[in-house]
Amino acid sequence: MKVSLCLVGLTTVSALAPPTTTKTVSPKAAAQAAALAAGCACFVASPSLAITSDIRNQLSYEQVKGTGLANRCNEVVGTGSISVPASGYKLVDLCLEPKTFAVEEEVSTKKGEIEKQFVNTKLMTRQTYTLDGISGKLEGGGSITFKEEDGIDYAPTTVQLPGGERVPFLFTVKELVAKGSGGAFKPGFEFGGSFKVPSYRTGLFLDPKGRGMTTGYDQAQALPASQVGEGAQEELFNENNKVFDVFDGTVEFAVSQVNAEDGEVGGVFVSSQPSDTDLGSKEPKKVLAKGIFFAKVVKE
């Protein structure tokens, strides 16, 4: 399902000055970096406090530790253009930072009708849900195609619905193939495609009754008697028969900032994917993630 990018209600305020043409670290920039690191301890990585690549590169491990900056994507300042005329280019350091998660649920309207709507959720996972360091080949020309190859391309995440139900899922862009019309990254350029969503759990996982896909019991203890009779086995089949599900997801990107000098691209994204099935025993829910992204275009 193609999700319109106009749904993304994200506002990122750049609190830092654009990077200068020289790579020399000035005392003023160093002081700004230190102030940012100190401020993050209080702001807890506030979305309004933007951080660029130049500022992040000046921070030490101790300055980043415990501030939440490691879970945030760099932001880009600029409105230039980066052409990808042919093959021989790569997209590296691709980072996806979700800002909101919504889950599709059946909701009762005022007329008493039941319809499916995306419901806002509460994030239960700590600051480890951002994808980062993703890279892959770019093919240019009349259009641009990106094929994901490597990086931290998945993050186990859990959100909570208003009623208290928790929905685990594997936030990912594995094997992403994204295409866009046009031969250059510039503000307004859009590209997107499909990716694979592996199971949230592996075959070695055991459920509370000791059942698993490759290890554990074939069926829960004390249940054989309940499986006697017509249709009794079907009721428990999905619980006993564990499977490693692989689904498809879609994502769309919209470029809003480009730093042509450093080859940086930034903007927003919308991702749609299924949730966890508990190794085949539950029906997956549709999860909608909205956020910002960052990437660098380099020549191989």
Structure summary, number of beta strands: 14
Write the element-wise H/E pattern from the N-terminal end onward.
HHHEEEEEEEEEEEHEEE
Regions with little confidence, pLDDT below 50 for 5+ residues? 1-25, 27-31, 33-48
Report the C-alpha radius of gyration, rounded. 22 Å
Helicity range of the residues? Answer: 10-25%
Give the rounded overall mean pLDDT: 81
User: What structural class should be given to the helix and strand makeup?
Assistant: mainly beta
Strand arrangement, largest sheet? 2-5-6-9-11-12-13-14
Largest sheet: 8 strands, antiparallel, barrel
Shape: elongated
Beta-strand fraction estimate: 35-45%
Q: Give the terminus-to-terminus CA distance.
A: 34 Å
Q: Compute the number of helices.
A: 4
Question: How does this model look, in words?
Answer:
With 300 residues, the protein is mainly beta. It has four helices and 14 strands. The strands form three sheets. The chain has an eight-stranded antiparallel β-barrel. A three-stranded antiparallel sheet has the order 4-7-8, with no helix packed on it. A two-stranded antiparallel sheet has the order 1-10. A hairpin with a 5-residue loop joins strand 2 (89-108) and strand 3. The chain is elongated and about 65 Å long. Residues 1-25, 27-31 and 33-48 have low confidence and may be disordered.
